[in-house]
Amino acid sequence: MTDTVSWNLQLNIREGRLEDFRALMGEMVSATEANEPGTQVYEWFLSDDGSACHIYERYADSSAAMIHLGTFGANFAGRFLECGEPTAIAVYGEPSAEVRGVLDGFGAAYLSPFGGFAR
Question: Of 3, 18, 33, 69, which residue is 20 to 30 A from 76 by alpha carbon distance?
Answer without folding.
Answer: 3
